[in-house]
Amino acid sequence: MSNHITSDPPSRRTPEPVHPEHAAAPGVHRHLNLIAGQWVPPSGGAYYSIRNPARPGECLGEFANSTAADVAAAVGAAAGAASAWADTPAPQRGAILSRLAQLLDDSRDELARIVTLEQGKALGEAAGEVGRAAAEARFMAGEAARPVGSTYPSERAGLSCQTVAEPLGVVATISPWNFPVVTPVRKIAPALAWGNTVVFKPAMLTPWSAVYLMHLLDRAGLPPGVVNLITGSGSVAGEALIHDARVGGISFTGSTDVGRRIYEGAARRLARVQLELGGKNPAVVFDCEDLDGAAREIVAAAFLCSGQRCTAISRVIVSDDQAEALAGRIVDYVSRIKVGDGLDPETTMGPLVSHGQLRSVAQYVRDGIASGCPTLAGGRALTEDPERDGYYHAPTVFDRVPADSPLALEEIFGPVLPILRVHSFEDAIAIANSTRYGLAASLFTSRLGYVHDFSRRVQAGMIHINHGTASQAHVPFGGVKESGQGAYSIGHTASEFYTNVKAVYVRW
Ligand code: NAD
């Protein structure tokens, strides 16, 4: 299959037309916005192209560069579809999500290939992401039919008291580029289960998976206008979306800085937010009998998706007496990572998503080397000419990193793992809590006392004992401090964002 050919699956009734008046370059497919069930060109007539990070010379397609007017039309479509969708019996909404889950499973190979092409991650990882999205959609299909309200004893005879959960109405979902399938599904599936309509804006770098997802929703039987897709920039399309007064809630996953900006804007009009933001996730290793197992888990959690995961282990905090042995094992596992084009079945780590991301990571690494931190592995970009040969960076491990180094404090979002050596478990906990983030944290130990201490005292939304920072498809997911705000996503807690509580008193 040529990489230039769109492999969107057949839709039921919303074929994506090629507009001859907006023809793309030969062999390049031009994708449009989806508004009220129709594929429509952007009102300004502007498009942008995306490139394969493994071979940036290869254009993967052109996508609508949407204007504020396009966003307003999409929100209008979602608002128009809201009451009919809210009135659709919840089990019917769940049945559509069940079909979506099945379609995701059935299209796993094709969609995974698109994810690898536009995002860069290894094909096996991409397939795992699609499978995970199917599992989350399936869980939410069930949620649609589960109880959402409560009944209360009444103070007065002849009066009943209950609470019901109502949809917010129109929800904006804004996603980053690192998980272009599972993050949108994590937002859209619960929105639909609890009766909301959606305007979805994917990251600029990964809109192709989003277009594909729209086709799957259509084939699953979703009525027109219930989910609308707007592609384009955060500064134009994203800003227009978050400030539209018809949007009742904003579910955003991305950087802490943009999340803060969205929170401020939403506060002005008292719109609800669900913010899933950055992380600097520690793995603490103390009195650990299975250092090899710890190293294996740490390396997998640190370098999956080339380290571009919000929950990636991005610093190791280890006791002095185990540091040498652990570092040796970490380096051994890192040496087995095969960097290359994600489509190559041998590859276990793909390129970074963009040249900008590569530059940023390479700068952190150069600064780390200049500051005198010993480099145990990697330490450089792998291509002389990234625009020609791909945005590759070697998996990199630094040792003896000081706790106040940018390597230890800042979210690098790349394949870079700093090791910090400490004298005491107290120091380990203090350093674990010393960043502005609080997303995920791992502890590798054989001492039960440390398990309790760590789980209680480490400031993080998710704690993992003796395994890497891997979440599951039905367990609440989120962060504290500057890693998140609002209801945790995944599982039942998502209802706190996607529904309003209404108290109903009935006298008979
Ligand atoms: P980003 O914040 O730059 O962009 C995220 C999304 O927001 C994109 O769709 C972007 O177009 C949009 N956006 C940008 N500016 C906007 C604005 N002013 N108004 C509205 N929308 C705007 O993040 P990114 O670079 O795409 O992703 C990487 C970041 O995402 C990292 O910080 C990572 O930790 C975080 N992340 C967090 C989680 C989590 O669950 N906590 C998961 C994945 C990624």
Write the layout of secondary structure elements.
Blueprint: E1 30-31, E2 33-35, E3 38-40, E4 47-52, E5 55-64, H1 68-87, H2 90-106, H3 108-119, H4 123-143, E6 150-152, E7 159-167, E8 170-174, H5 182-193, E9 197-201, H6 207-219, E10 227-229, H7 234-243, E11 247-253, H8 256-268, E12 272-276, E13 281-285, H9 291-303, E14 313-319, H10 320-335, H11 355-370, E15 375-377, H12 386-389, E16 396-398, H13 406-409, E17 416-422, H14 425-432, E18 437-438, E19 440-444, H15 448-457, E20 462-465, E21 480-481, E22 484-485, H16 495-498, E23 499-507
Parallel strand pairs: 1-5, 8-9, 8-11, 9-10, 11-12, 13-14, 13-19, 14-17, 16-17, 19-20
Antiparallel strand pairs: 2-3, 4-5, 6-7, 7-23, 12-22, 15-16, 18-21
Helix pairs in contact: 1-7, 2-4, 2-6, 3-4, 3-6, 4-5, 9-10
The structure holds nicotinamide-adenine-dinucleotide.
Could you characterize the architecture of this molecule?
The chain is an alpha/beta fold and 508 residues long. The protein has two domains: 68-277 and 483-504, Aldehyde Dehydrogenase, Chain A, domain 1 (3-Layer(aba) Sandwich), CATH 3.40.605.10; 281-473, Aldehyde Dehydrogenase, Chain A, domain 2, CATH 3.40.309.10. Helices cover 38% and strands 22% of the residues. The chain has helices at 68-87, 90-106, 108-119, 123-143, 182-193, 207-219, 234-243, 256-268, 291-303, 320-335, 355-370, 386-389, 406-409, 425-432, 448-457, 495-498; strands spanning 30-31, 33-35, 38-40, 47-52, 55-64, 150-152, 159-167, 170-174, 197-201, 227-229, 247-253, 272-276, 281-285, 313-319, 375-377, 396-398, 416-422, 437-438, 440-444, 462-465, 480-481, 484-485, 499-507. The strands form six sheets. The chain has a seven-stranded mixed sheet, with helices on both faces. A six-stranded mixed sheet has the order 10-9-8-11-12-22, sandwiched between helices. Helix 3 packs antiparallel against helix 6 (207-219). Nicotinamide-adenine-dinucleotide (NAD) is lined by residues 174-178, 201-204, 234-235, 238-239, 242, 253-255, 258, 261-262, 276-279, 310, 411, 413, 439, 479. Nicotinamide-adenine-dinucleotide binds at residues 174-178, 201-204, 234-235, 238-239, 242, 253-255, 258, 261-262, 276-279, 310, 411, 413, 439, 479.
